[in-house]
Design goal:
Helix content is about 50%, strand content about 10%. It has about 450 residues and is an alpha/beta fold. It folds into four domains: about 5-60, no CATH class; about 65-165 and about 205-270, P-loop containing nucleotide triphosphate hydrolases (Rossmann fold); about 270-340, no CATH class; about 345-450, Orthogonal Bundle (Arc Repressor Mutant, subunit A), CATH 1.10.10. The protein has a five-stranded parallel sheet, with helices on both faces. A three-stranded antiparallel sheet has the order 6-8-7. The longest helix is centred in the middle third of the chain and has 23 residues, at about 270-295. It is globular and about 65 Å long.
C-alpha cells in the first residue's frame, strides 16, 4: 500500500461510546471534570489520528498482499472457472460449516492437483458476492516463497487485510507503540503478531468474520504454531469461522482433531463431484484448444475423451497436458496426446525423459536445480547471476523465456518471475529425480548457488 493510499484511506468513525474512555486529565469521551462537553473535534481528530497511524504501520507488516496473490494464482492457472468449484456450495459438509453456528472450522483436504487452491478462490468470491461475512481475511501458503511459506507470514497477511476495518488497526498501533520495529522484525515476531491477531478477533465490535488459509502443508516453518492458533481461536469465538485446506497429512489431521467444532471435507470422498468439475474444466480447455489450433470435431472429441478418462479427477494433470498441446497442430494432436501417461508422477517422469533426450539437457538440469534450492521465485534477470547462461541469451528476455520453456512444464514464467508450476513438481524433482538434477549432490548445488 503506497503512502498516498494510506493517507487517502477513509476510516469510519464509530458512533456512541465505541471509543471507551479517553485517558488523560480525567477526560472521558464527551465529558470533562465539570460536566461540560468536550469539543467533538477532539474525539474525531483523536480517532482519525489513531486510524492513520495504524494504516501506516501496515507498511511495516507487509510481505505480500493476499489479494494480489489470489489474482496472480488465478491468472497463472488460466482463470477461475465457476463450473470447477460451484459444486462445493451445495456440498453437505460445506453447508453444515456455513449454516451451523457450532461448526466453526472447515478442513478441505485432498491429494496434490485436486484443485484445492482454486476451490478456495471460488469460495472467497462467493462469500464476497453475498456480503457474507462483513470481514473476509485469507492467505495462500506457497512453499517455494519465503514471503508465504511460514506461520509468521500467514499472520502478517491476515492482519494486513484488516485494512477493511480500520478501527481494528488500533491493536497494531498499540503493540507498535510498546515495542517499535521489533514487532515486525525479530525473534519474537510470532508472539507479538499472534497477540495482535487474538486482540483483533476478541474485539467486541468485530463484525462476522471468515478466515481462509490455503495449503497448510506448504507452511514449512511454524506449522505447529499456526495449527495451534487455529484450533484455539476456532474453539472459542462464535463470530469467527475458518476454512483451511491441505494435503492428506496425518500430522495436520491430528492437530485439527483437537477441536470439536471441525467439519472435514475430503475431496477423495467427493470423487464424483470433483470428477464432474474436472470434466467441465477439460471441456473448457479443449474448446479453447480447438479454436486455437483448428481441430475438427472428431479430433476435438477424441482429445476430450482421452483427457477425461485419464485425468482421474486431477485438475493439474489435465492442465499440464493441455499446456503441452497448445502448440501442437490439429493433424498430430491426437497421436501426440497418447504419449502422456495418466497420473501426475508418470507425467513428470515423461517430462524428465524428454528433457534428457534434448540437446539442452545439461542447461535445463542446472536451471531446475537452481530454482529448486532458492528460497523464493527468481526473476529472469537474477537467473544468469546464479548460474552460467549462454552469453547471447543473458539479458535477452525473449531468449531467456525460450530457455525456461525448455524446462517442460516444471516451471512457469509470469511477469519475468520464474517459479514451479505446482509444489508437486518440485516434490517430484527433490524426491524421485534428485540424482538427475543434483548429480553432485543437493548440498553442493546449494553451496554453489549461494557462495
Amino acid at each position: 500500500m503506497s503512502e498516498r493510499e494510506l493517507d487517502a484511506a477513509p476510516p469510519s468513525i464509530p458512533t456512541g461510546n465505541a471509543f471507551g474512555p479517553i485517558q488523560g486529565d480525567n477526560v472521558i469521551a464527551g465529558q470533562n471534570i465539570s460536566g461540560g462537553t468536550v469539543n467533538n473535534n477532539f474525539v474525531k481528530n483523536n480517532f482519525y489520528g489513531e486510524q492513520e497511524r495504524g494504516l501506516k504501520h501496515l507498511k511495516n507488516l507487509y510481505t505480500t498482499d493476499p489479494r494480489h496473490d489470489k489474482t496472480r494464482i488465478e491468472q497463472t492457472k488460466g482463470g477461475l472457472l465457476a463450473d470447477s468449484y460451484r459444486w462445493v456450495l451445495d456440498n453437505t459438509d460445506f453447508r453444515r460449516w456455513r449454516n451451523n453456528e457450532e461448526s466453526r472450522l472447515l478442513w478441505i483436504k485432498g491429494d496434490p492437483g485436486k484443485g484445492k487452491t482454486m476451490l478456495l478462490c471460488g469460495i472467497i468470491d462467493e462469500l464476497k458476492a453475498v456480503s457474507d461475512p462483513a470481514l473476509l481475511l485469507f492467505f495462500f501458503c506457497q512453499a517455494t516463497d519465503v514471503s508465504t511459506n511460514n506461520a509468521t507470514a500467514v499472520l502478517r497477511g491476515l492482519i494486513y487485510l484488516v485494512d477493511q476495518q480500520p478501527s481494528l488497526l488500533s491493536y497494531v498501533q498499540k503493540k507498535y507503540d510498546a515495542t517499535g520495529n521489533p514487532l515486525f522484525r525479530g525473534v519474537n515476531t510470532w508472539v507479538a503478531l499472534s497477540e495482535v491477531f487474538i486482540d483483533i478477533l476478541e474485539d467486541p465490535t468485530l463484525p462476522p468474520t471468515r478466515l481462509i488459509i490455503d495449503a497448510l502443508d506448504e507452511c514449512i516453518e511454524g506449522l505447529d504454531l499456526l495449527l495451534g492458533l487455529i484450533v484455539q481461536m476456532s474453539s472459542i469465538h462464535l463470530n469467527v469461522k475458518w476454512i483451511v485446506s491441505s494435503r492428506n497429512w496425518p500430522i495436520i489431521e491430528k492437530k485439527l482433531n483437537a477441536t470439536t467444532q471441525k467439519v472435514m471435507l475430503s475431496l477423495e470422498l467427493n470423487e464424483e463431484s470433483v470428477s464432474t468439475a474436472v470434466t467441465a474444466y477439460i471441456r473448457f480447455k479443449v474448446d479453447w484448444l480447438a479454436a486455437q489450433n483448428g481441430y475438427d470435431i472428431d479430433t476435438r472429441d477424441a482429445i476430450e475423451r482421452y483427457l477425461s478418462v485419464n485425468a482421474y479427477g486431477t485438475f493439474l494433470w489435465a492442465a499440464l497436458v493441455c499446456h503441452e498441446l497448445a502448440d501442437i497442430s490439429g493433424w498430430e494432436a491426437e497421436e501426440f496426446l497418447r504419449t502422456f501417461p495418466p497420473g501426475l508422477d508418470a507425467l513428470y517422469r515423461r517430462m524428465m525423459d524428454q528433457i534428457h533426450k534434448s540437446r539442452h539437457a545439461k542447461l535445463v538440469q542446472r536451471i531446475l536445480a537452481t530454482v529448486a534450492v532458492v528460497y523464493r521465485p527468481i526473476s529472469l534477470e537474477e537467473l544468469p547471476i546464479l548460474l552460467d547462461i549462454p552469453y547471447r541469451a543473458s539479458g535477452n528476455d525473449q531468449a531467456m523465456a525460450e530457455i525456461i520453456g525448455l524446462c517442460g512444464s516444471f516451471l512457469t514464467l509470469r511477469e519475468h518471475t520464474i517459479s514451479f508450476i505446482h509444489q508437486s513438481a518440485k516434490d517430484f524433482l527433490l524426491k524421485q529425480a534428485r540424482n538427475e538434477i543434483f548429480p553432485s549432490g543437493l548440498e553442493n548445488t546449494h553451496h554453489t548457488v549461494f557462495s
